Amino acid sequence: MLYIVGLGLGDAKDITVKGLEVIRKSEKVYLEAYTSILTVGKEALEEFYGKQLILADRDMVEQHADVILDNAKNCDVSFLVVGDPFGATTHTDLLLRARQAEIPYNVIHNASIMNAVGCCGLQLYSFGETVSIVFWTDDWKPDSFYDKILANTTRGLHTHCLLDIKVKEQSIENLMRGKKIYEPPRYMSAAQAARQLLEIIQKKRVEGCEDTELAYTEKSVCVGLARVGSDDQRIVATTLQKMTTTDLGPPLHSLVIAGHLHPLEVEMLTLFTDDLTLFENVVLL
Amino acid sequence: MLYIVGLGLGDAKDITVKGLEVIRKSEKVYLEAYTSILTVGKEALEEFYGKQLILADRDMVEQHADVILDNAKNCDVSFLVVGDPFGATTHTDLLLRARQAEIPYNVIHNASIMNAVGCCGLQLYSFGETVSIVFWTDDWKPDSFYDKILANTTRGLHTHCLLDIKVKEQSIENLMRGKKIYEPPRYMSAAQAARQLLEIIQKKRVEGCEDTELAYTEKSVCVGLARVGSDDQRIVATTLQKMTTTDLGPPLHSLVIAGHLHPLEVEMLTLFTDDLTLFENVVLL
């Protein structure tokens, strides 16, 4: 049996009781290690689970899924995923391959940033399409997510921005030379995301866009979330301009651009800001 | 300390290890009992947790929140919520009151249908605004969610429909007489939701709407989900027309109206249908 087990968001104890039982009875336990991270390392998980974990990086899962699945034919195998198993496409792919090979599988759900983002007080029902913001380089600055944010804010909806993670990436030089030397992991901060977002509207203005036509401006209310679900979780509500210089500490970060606000949402966000003028210009529901 | 603890979706063992520890050390443990249900009853939870649970219905939470909070001033109190604590506004309200009374609180996240719905294979990133479908009566048929679905499908996005739950509701007669006699609980099925959805487009057609202008038609692909996260979870992908006569068994149900589909999404949905013609007319991403 193949078990795909969500680990939740904070530390080792965020696993469910059901998930822990499954890990402890599994003969092999893989830890997915490239779409997200917990606030604790592999060793802390191994100690708590009482099991050795096999790190499954992108190469392994994409190229050696057969090995993982072959094991699951004859014994219990767990594949551990930070958050919930259905946050990333890769796990769907593993599940489809299991089904093709007629290997029974079972999914153990857990919290994901996709629902836990609600802890900032913005109602999940009022979110539009989620967007992903990737690291820009000097000559590669994709901004296709801007139109999605615009479509959301036009409807008064909040936008959850998932921020880029670069794990086990090769420099272009090493890639060209075929050298498997990896860059240190990088995680986009809410501040950096805010800077990229503001750079986009600068460009729109140069192209002739009026401020009233923009998806957001420097004054828009946004919420930065860091290490959601852990003991040192941090949430800050402020303007996009101020977010560019707000340090939320270590990863992972998320950023939400607020749409229209319900008075209860304003009340909740007030817990996370010291800027009492923040809500002066927001549209209330 | 007030702990607001998510229980996840299936049975007693879907609680996190952290959540279980919190419950076991709490002096009082309340079980929220009106926005959702687990597939097991209060007794099964009490046995597994080794704690007596106090059922907290809508009356109690809205009118006697002070009692819950007063207890939390001097000792550890847990307030248990099916799914994740931030699925419903009421829990936000409790948290705000705790903050006002300067009572420290802590939130233990868990899976919610808002993220676990991804188990049907539709990518969470491709969902638009979530809508709620309420039980219609003969003379009260609200359909304001239709425009939201239209806005989603116009953008090719999926729509997650949360289905109505009526727990501890009074009949109008008993309400008028001030009698606290409650109707048996009712949970909307995916079939009933599909019937209401199709009634709306019948009305739109009478009003002159062309099929190409509708948010969906009888042939639209939809996915019914029942008891997500439990051992007898059921997922069926079919047309909205066929969903009206599809019995998914006991509650809770959810319904998703598909937008444009990624080939990987089609492949996943194929696991949940015996209708091979289902995807003939869908727009692929």
Automatic annotation (TrEMBL), chains A, B:
Pathway: Protein modification; peptidyl-diphthamide biosynthesis. It catalyses: 2-[(3S)-amino-3-carboxypropyl]-L-histidyl-[translation elongation factor 2] + 4 S-adenosyl-L-methionine = diphthine methyl ester-[translation elongation factor 2] + 4 S-adenosyl-L-homocysteine + 3 H(+). The keyword Transport does not apply. Keywords: Methyltransferase, S-adenosyl-L-methionine, Transferase. Its EC number is 2.1.1.314. Coiled coil: none annotated. It is an enzyme of class 2 (transferase). Residues 1-242 form the Tetrapyrrole methylase domain. NCBIfam families: dph5. HAMAP family: Diphthine_synth. S-adenosyl-L-methionine-dependent methyltransferase that catalyzes four methylations of the modified target histidine residue in translation elongation factor 2 (EF-2), to form an intermediate called diphthine methyl ester. The four successive methylation reactions represent the second step of diphthamide biosynthesis. Belongs to the diphthine synthase family. This is diphthine methyl ester synthase. It comes from Limulus polyphemus (Atlantic horseshoe crab). The lineage of its organism: Eukaryota, Metazoa, Ecdysozoa, Arthropoda, Chelicerata.
